[in-house]
Amino acid sequence: MKLSEFYYELPEGRIAQFPVTPRDHSKLMIVDCSSNAIQHKQFHEIVQFFIPGDVLVVNVTKVFPARLRGKKRSGGKVDVLLLEPVLPSSEKALSPKGSSGIDEGGLLWRSLIRGARKATDLLFPEELRAAMETVLPNGEWLLRFSRNSIRDYLDRHGEMPLPPYIKRLAEASDDRDRYQTVFARDEGAVAAPTAGFHFTEDVLHQLEKKGIQRVEITLHVGWGTFRPIRTEKIEEHPMLPEAYTVSLDAASKLSAAKKDGRRIVAVGTTAVRTLETICDDQGTFHAGEGQAKLFIYPGYRFKAVNALVTNFHLPDSTPLLLANAFFWDKSPKTIPSLPPFVLRPAYEAAIQGDYRFYSYGDAMFMQ
């Protein structure tokens, strides 16, 4: 399967730079997978498309202010995206050499760095220093800080890690609030589960009144979800693992719903990847912690998810492939041959209908 088959032309200016206010007044496209019919609504109207007994699955990961701006010792500017701290148990294997002038006790982070290609020391406000210690095969750097804890420092100097296609500084909006879902709780993500942006407390309350059960899971979204695909042959793209946690209570509720034949509605591609990872071939969901490595593209057979809330995605992204895989799998099997980009008509309708695209853009509900 070729990446070029999923390309589409997006008019300039259609990438959302700011979120809609209020959240639930974004546009909503309803896509019927069985008939390919499309309806245009506002997001707060999504409640009418749920069936009593449905299970709504949300990812409660929380984004932390993971972007730091500093400079190299030579004076050049650098942009650092912190991914996650390295546990002491795995530090020796990842970083066999000492740091460049920074105490070995300093905190080590997996990071992405723009503005520096060779190992050097980096300087930040309040005399915080970090050494670019080791480069990993996937392009990440191990960055050792001069302090054992920088979490409070990030609250003072860190920025929300907005995607690169949002062409403004994070300080230009209320991103500390809006680049989170209203149900965000477990901190650890460097990118938001953006399909959840559209939900408000009012919409959630209406769903609860209708008899919709809500189940919370956690997948800490890393850069792997949004890392562009660079291989023309899709199957060759390496999917980076992301940490998930699913409680025993959540797994039990999901297994009961599947046994009863009730719909499981996933909010976002990160929730889908987690659910498909923990669901076995018999429809039983397994609690625990682990690494989601599943790469879903057209041809995948879904075991767990029956309906999907998602945004409109980049042409070279894994979320776009997952959304197409979902539509492909749920379409009538009487159709003799479906193109890989089965959502192309929906995307063309979104472009014609002035929908806003990507993280702060509008939503789609596939059922």
Topology:
Layout lengths: L26 E5 L6 E5 L12 E5 L1 E3 L3 E6 L4 E9 L2 H7 L13 E7 L6 E4 L3 E8 L5 E5 L5 H7 L17 H4 L7 E4 L11 H9 L3 E7 L3 H4 L15 E5 L1 H13 L3 E4 L1 H10 L9 E5 L14 E5 L6 H13 L13 H9 L10 E4 L1
Parallel strand pairs: 1-17, 3-12, 3-14, 4-11, 14-16
Antiparallel strand pairs: 1-2, 5-6, 5-8, 6-7, 7-10, 8-9, 9-10, 12-13, 13-15, 16-17
Structure summarized in a few sentences:
21% of the residues lie in helices and 25% in strands.
Folded structure, characterized:
This protein is an alpha/beta fold and 367 residues long. 21% of the residues lie in helices and 25% in strands. The protein is built from nine helices and 17 strands. It has helices at residues 88-94, 151-157, 175-178, 201-209, 223-226, 248-260, 269-278, 318-330, 344-352; strands spanning 27-31, 38-42, 55-59, 61-63, 67-72, 77-85, 108-114, 121-124, 128-135, 141-145, 186-189, 213-219, 242-246, 264-267, 288-292, 307-311, 363-366. The strands form three sheets. Strands 2-1-17-16-14-3-12-13-15 form a nine-stranded mixed sheet, covered by helices on one side. It has a six-stranded antiparallel barrel with strand order 5-6-7-10-9-8. The longest helix has 13 residues, at 248-260.
